[in-house]
From TrEMBL, chain A:
One of its GO terms (cellular component) is ERMES complex. This is Mitochondrial distribution and morphology protein 10. Belongs to the MDM10 family. Pfam families: MDM10. The lineage of its organism: Eukaryota, Fungi, Dikarya, Ascomycota, Pezizomycotina. It comes from Sordaria brevicollis. It is a multi-pass membrane protein. Lacks alpha-helical transmembrane segments, suggesting that it resides in the membrane via beta-sheet conformations similar to those predicted for other outer membrane proteins and porin. One of its GO terms (biological process) is mitochondrial outer membrane translocase complex assembly.
From TrEMBL, chain B:
This is Mitochondrial distribution and morphology protein 34. Component of the ER-mitochondria encounter structure (ERMES) or MDM complex, composed of MMM1, MDM10, MDM12 and MDM34. Residues 320-542, 572-592 are annotated as: Disordered. Belongs to the MDM34 family. CDD domains: SMP_Mdm34 (cd21673). The gene is MDM34. One of its GO terms (molecular function) is lipid binding. Keywords: Lipid transport, Lipid-binding, Membrane, Mitochondrion, Mitochondrion outer membrane, Transmembrane, Transmembrane beta strand, Transport.
Length: 474, 592
């Protein structure tokens, strides 16, 4: 489960139209979410609130042996009205990080409020279709329109976000500033202050430049004077066609896109995706050490009709490390991922598999085996309707004819209720025979996350960790 | 008198290396490792070599079949070696990332992927030069404290010897690590090993060791001391002596009630749970309550002897270490003003094995005779020396007292009467000490009532060779040291303010028993005054004198050592450069 502030930060990206996935260190984000999901430890309670559209707070209380907690505040200069912050309405796939499909490669301004599930003005369709990433034509056109308008107003992008968090017993202070300068340029400064750290804390500065077709990032950390540079370049698929030029007029793109939708029907039967290549380079100016890696990714686009998949290959030539991942959305409710690592110098190898299984049943359904039809909510309505009210009986008359509820919204909501995911089971297994299990879902208006780590090598006491996180937000 | 040291641990005990390896491995993996070390450190090879160290006895403070207390100077440049194996992280970015807070991590994709390399390090050509304080008691095993930083030099060779930078780094790091190991861990290891050997009831042990023990046990009562007297100077019947039983072992254990041990365990584990209940442990002195010198008092052996010859011992303190302040010796060459008295759990059971078992103690020796020093502080007559030097001090101190304080109380000096025959002095006569905690009446009450009103006993140890009738004579007295519950409880109820007073006391006592010099007379007079006030408050107790004796002995030893160190330093200043940074008292070693 992502933290609430993380979710809000992503909502800020969505609201300002920043594509956070178009950078090199998100290259294998999909398989990372599926395999390296964090397991909760101990008991953790989070109370969060988006008090105003500009301001969010979050309080956390945890107990892993000792009681600790944190207080965090966030301020965004752009109103975050379009997102659902209440924990009974937050779309779970957005919060729980399911298989991530690619964003359309437009310029950052142009996919403003387009297909981000967090950012659509109507509440995001929390359906399997949305999970798949198929974008309806209507929203497509909508988004393009908005994007077109937004592109002409550069001042719209000079937004900023301030975030601070204080961990209490440790007196650790975190701070972050995100400042958007132009459509393509954004600067992040993160700082941590703690007594035990050298010099009392560290500051990390990031300059991010996203041109759609390529994204560049430069960073500097005061700790060791680390300088870093990362870049990602996209080609193939939609990136290769001319329409990906970010600054083409919106109208042209719109027509192009619609023609894509019609004319590329045959092409979509074949595998249809986008290639990305990139690299990173680090150099510590104080400790005179460095590191680098190169990577490539192929991922199918949302327009692809077949099974969505993502494959990455990264190489660290200095350390001789080869890392390959493969993730796919086998069913609309089931994602799988594998990862293999091999080191050509030390011959060490690792593998790990991960799985994600969504359910639209009630959370207890996993345990009790209850089917969705057992949901009690629709039942109480009909019998009540047949009885005359007590007042009507006293007045010797019939009840007033009730206005018939409109059939279409009811159908829609019921359908939506059925389609809405209510829980997810994540599992992973690695070559040390360690199993991680995570069950996340929504119970009433609480979002919970229950996880455990199991070590099959030590069957005597297999549970290495156990944790429960409960989050409530309003 | 001669000592035999055997440097042949291999033949003595086949499983020695195995056990030593295990202990070293656990010791090395105990402390949190730097992130560059990704695996446990294993001791793959360990050999003590065939060249024995040079041992020089500087001081012997206590000597009997079951206990030994002495100070050695050890020089070693032999062929011992040690090989360690572990795995290190070769990617600097990986260690960089792992040690940093995740919030400001640059989050590299795979640039920080790990590459672990097996590493083998061999330590050889170890050169040591150390002053060792060695305390052995049958009950509490062998305790070794290094007076200075013993490591002179060593050679580190590793897998990466071809890379100059790595080699230098390893050499530097390992030297500093090894210093810590020798100063902190090695005494603990030796203590544990000795406990396994001699105190099988304190550690879970194998059956064969028990057999060994019973075989080797020598009845010290077979040769009773010539002048067996009890604590009050009454001569003991030989019949009485023979009625002393050897098998008081289980009884000693009864001092730690099982219930208390369980409660201690619960207390130690309390921080892991959120339990709010603190188990109430009876008859203990909590470390947090006791100050530095308080601790010493509380942990010192209660040796109040009672005629019923009940044999028990105190386990109050598990730490028996001396720590001497180095600074004072620097400051004034001789006459160190304030030895940090940590504890002196003197050996309490008088009856036990012969000294032949000393060879197992971890000092590995070959058959060789160590020349004792022949200067004035020769170890051959420690007791008489204690007597003579401290009597000087005492004389001067009491002189000062009588001149400066007109209302000086009757002096009842407590002395050590030596054995009639001088040649028995070292081997059979022994100074009995008693802890200061004996003399802890409620200080507050006596303070309020006026300290001078209480007739005080100036407890300047004034040993003389002539035994006067009112002297308390302490001679070798096997197995007459029951734990006095009174003392324990008094120590328990000690108010916190006591600690400061006790330290004052120690301070006050220090210069008196050091080799007092005439130019320090003034200072001593003040101290003497202070001391008299102290004791006036404390009130008279016949038992307290031995405490003073004990402190006196320690102070004297401290003074001696300090003087030697000073001399040594003058002779060879470069070697002593670094040794003054290790003044922290070594940790207490609990028997496991």
């Amino acid at each position: 489960m992502r933290e609430f502030m993380n979710y809000i930060t992503n909502a800020f990206y969505g609201a300002t139209g920043w594509n956070e996935d178009n950078k090199y260190n998100e290259l294998n984000a999909t398989s990372r979410e599926l395999i390296d999901f964090p397991l909760p430890r101990g008991l953790r309670l989070t109370l969060s609130s988006l008090a105003t559209p500009h301001f969010a707070t979050s309080y956390q209380l945890g107990s892993v042996g000792v009681v600790d907690g944190s207080i965090s505040y966030l301020h965004s200069s752009v109103p975050l009205t379009h997102i659902a912050a209440q924990s009974d309405k937050i779309p779970l796939p957005a919060l729980l990080r399911c298989y991530r499909r690619l964003h359309d490669l437009r310029s950052p301004g142009q996919h403003y409020m387009l297909d981000d599930p967090l950012s659509g003005l109507p509440p995001p369709p929390q359906s399997a279709q949305a999970l798949l990433g198929a974008v309806s034509d209507a929203s497509n056109a909508d988004g393009s329109l908005i994007g077109g308008k937004a592109g002409q107003d550069p001042s719209k992008f000079t937004h900023s976000l301030l975030y601070g968090r204080l961990y209490l017993p440790k007196s650790l202070l975190e701070g972050m500033i995100i400042k958007r300068f132009t459509q393509a340029l954004q600067i992040q400064v993160r700082a941590v202050s703690e007594q035990s750290l050298r010099n009392g804390g560290t500051i990390l500065g990031l300059v991010q430049y996203d041109k759609g077709k390529y994204g560049l990032e430069g960073l500097y950390s005061t700790d060791g004077g680390l300088l870093g540079f990362r870049g990602l370049y996209n080609f193939g698929g939609d990136a290769s066609s001319s329409n990906c030029d970010p600054w083409t007029p919106a109208v042209g793109e719109n027509s192009n896109h619609s023609s894509n939708g019609n004319g590329q029907g045959i092409e979509k039967e074949r595998i249809y995706g986008r290639f990305s290549v990139g690299g990173e380079l680090y150099y510590g100016t104080l400790n005179k050490s460095g590191g680098m890696s190169l990577g490539a990714r192929f991922a199918t686009l949302p327009a692809h009709r077949g099974t969505p998949l993502t494959a990455t290959l990264t190489i660290n030539p200095l350390m001789g490390n080869i890392n390959a991942t493969y993730a796919l959305l086998a069913r609309e409710y089931c994602s799988l991922a594998t990862r293999v690592e091999f080191n050509v110098y030390s011959y060490e190898s690792e593998w790990a598999v991960g799985m994600e299984l969504w359910s639209n049943r009630r959370p207890a359904g996993f345990l009790l085996g209850a089917s969705p039809s057992n949901d009690p909510e629709p039942e109480p309505q009909p019998p009540r309707k047949k009885e005359r009210s007590f007042q009507a009986k006293m007045e010797w008359r019939l009840d007033d004819p009730e206005p018939e509820p409109e059939p279409t919204p009811k159908n829609e909501t019921e359908k939506k209720k059925n389609d809405e995911y209510k829980g997810v089971l994540k599992a992973r297994l690695d070559n040390n025979l360690r199993i991680g299990l995570l069950w996340e879902g929504r119970a009433k208006s609480l979002i919970f996350s229950l996880g455990t780590g199991i070590d099959l090598h030590k069957l005597g006491e297999p549970f290495r960790s156990l944790g429960l996180e409960v989050q409530y937000s309003s | 008198m001669a000592f035999n040291f055997n440097w042949s641990p291999l033949t003595a005990d086949a499983g020695f290396y195995e056990r030593a390896r295990d202990l070293l491995t656990t010791a090395l993996n105990k402390s949190p490792k730097p992130p560059i070390i990704v695996d446990d450190i294993f001791v793959t090879e360990f050999n003590l070599g065939s060249v024995p160290p040079d041992l020089e006895i500087l001081e012997i403070g206590d000597l009997a079949e079951d206990r030994f207390r002495g100070i050695f100077k050890m020089c070693y440049s032999g062929d011992a070696f040690l090989t360690l194996a572990t795995r290190v992280q070769a990617n600097p970015l990986n260690t960089y990332i792992s040690a940093k807070p995740s919030f400001t991590s640059p989050e590299p994709l795979t640039a920080s992927s790990s590459l672990t390399i097996p590493l083998q390090i061999t330590l050889s050509e170890i050169k040591l030069s150390a002053f060792i304080i060695l305390v052995f008691s049958k009950q509490k095993g062998l305790t070794i404290v290094f007076r200075n930083d013993p490591l002179e030099s060593l050679k580190v060779s590793s897998t990466f010897d071809s890379i100059q930078f790595v080699r230098d780094y390893l050499q530097k790091t390992i030297e500093s690590k090894l210093r810590d190991l020798i100063m902190d861990e090695l005494p603990a290891i030796i203590h544990r090993l000795s406990l396994q050997l001699w105190c099988p009831d304190q550690v879970p042990k194998e059956g064969e060791e028990a057999k060994e023990e019973s075989d080797a046990a020598i009845n010290p009562l077979a040769t009773p001391p010539l002048d067996a007297v009890d604590a009050h100077g009454h001569r003991l019947d030989p019949v009485e002596i023979s009625s002393l039983s050897l098998d008081g072992g289980p009884e000693t254990q009864s001092l730690f009630s099982q219930k208390n041990l369980e409660k201690m365990d619960a207390l130690a584990n309390a921080h892991r749970t959120s339990s709010l209940i603190t188990p109430n442990i009876l008859e203990v002195v909590f470390r947090a309550w006791a100050g530095q010198s308080d601790k010493a008092d509380a942990t010192a052996t209660p040796s109040a002897s009672t005629p019923n010859l009940h044999r028990t011992s105190s386990y109050q303190g598990s730490a028996h270490t001396y720590t001497f302040s180095d600074n004072s010796s620097q400051a004034s060459g001789h006459a160190p003003s304030r030895p940090t008295l940590v504890s002196m759990g003197s050996a309490t059971t008088g009856l036990s094995l012969g000294s032949g078992r000393h060879s197992k103690a971890g000092r590995k020796k070959k058959m060789r005779v160590v020349n004792l020093r022949s200067n004035k502080t020769a170890a051959s007559e420690p007791v008489s020396e204690v007597g003579s030097t401290s009597s000087q001090a005492g004389d001067s101190g009491s002189e000062a007292a009588s001149t400066r304080t007109p209302m000086s109380e009757p002096v009842i000096p407590t002395t050590i009467r030596e054995a009639p025959e001088d040649d028995l002095v070292a081997s059979q006569t022994k100074v009995r000490f008693r802890p200061a905690a004996d003399a802890t009446p409620s200080p507050r009450a006596s303070e309020s009532s006026g300290s001078r009103a209480v007739p005080s006993v100036p407890v300047t140890a004034q040993p003389s060779r002539v035994a006067s009738p009112q002297e308390h004579v302490y001679t070798r007295q096997p197995s007459m040291f029951p734990s006095s519950p009174v003392q324990q409880t008094s120590a328990q109820e000690m108010p916190p303010s006591y600690s400061s007073r006790a330290s004052e006391k120690a301070e006050a006592a220090a210069p008196i028993y050091a080799d007092a010099k005439a130019q320090q007379q003034q200072f001593q007079q003040q101290q003497q005054q202070q001391q008299q006030q102290q004791w006036g408050r404390a009130g008279p107790q016949p038992d307290m004198s031995s405490v003073i004796l004990e402190q006196a002995w320690i102070t004297k030893i401290a003074g001696e050592i300090a003087r030697r160190v000073y001399d040594e330093k003058n002779r060879n200043p470069s070697f002593w450069e670094e040794s003054h940074q290790h003044d922290i008292p070594p940790p207490a070693y609990e028997p496991r």
